[in-house]
Design brief:
The protein is an alpha+beta fold. The chain has 5 helices and 7 strands; from the N terminus they run βααββαβαβαββ.
């Protein structure tokens, strides 16, 4: 029988494990130094981890936007496109814990938080060059729609910008599709 999964806040005891998990997931997410990880945690409006047997096996780090002093080309793109949004800066699931619905549970919990605090749109991006077809399928399955694309990292990476409506009448519209 599989051990139960709990979602909860990231604790200081989780930090090193989650940073290592993050860096092993590159290039799907950007590798981080300890200082960059600490800064992101401070900027985060919502960071949760999935734990199995007390050990973290997945996490989602979310930001509120716009307005943060965060040097991310993708966050800047969403800041220009939306008056107010929640942003999935990164979600990582350890290889041994994949295909258990953990990413979806984290996304749904973040979306629930967004709805409770009055947000109407949840934003994320996925690499399309280098391709990440599994992540594109995941985001489509979870209600995200393309709202644009951009080249990042000096043109070495192309990303698709995605948005998910959190409540009816939210600002996810076809007019932003680029």
């Amino acid at each position: 029988m599989e051990r139960s999964v709990s979602l909860g806040p990231v604790t200081p005891a989780d930090h090193a494990v989650l940073l290592d998990m993050n860096n092993q997931a590159a290039p799907a997410v950007n590798a981080l130094t300890e200082e960059e990880w600490s800064t992101l945690l401070e900027l985060s409006v919502w960071t949760r981890a999935a734990h199995v047997g007390g050990a973290p096996v997945a996490f989602l780090l979310g930001l509120d936007g716009p307005g943060l002093d965060y040097r991310s080309e993708n966050y800047a793109w969403f800041s220009a496109a939306f008056d107010r949004f929640l942003y999935v800066d990164r979600v990582v699931v350890a290889p041994h814990a994949r295909s258990r619905g953990l990413g979806g549970r984290l996304y749904d919990a973040f979306a629930d938080f967004g709805t409770r605090v009055g947000h109407s749109v949840l934003c994320a991006e996925v690499n399309i060059d280098p391709p990440n077809p599994g992540s594109l399928r995941f985001h489509e399955h979870h209600g995200f729609r393309p709202v644009g694309e951009q080249d990042t990292k000096g043109g070495s990476v192309r990303v698709r910008m995605l948005a998910r409506e959190l409540r009816p009448g939210g600002p996810v519209g076809g007019d932003l599709v680029g």
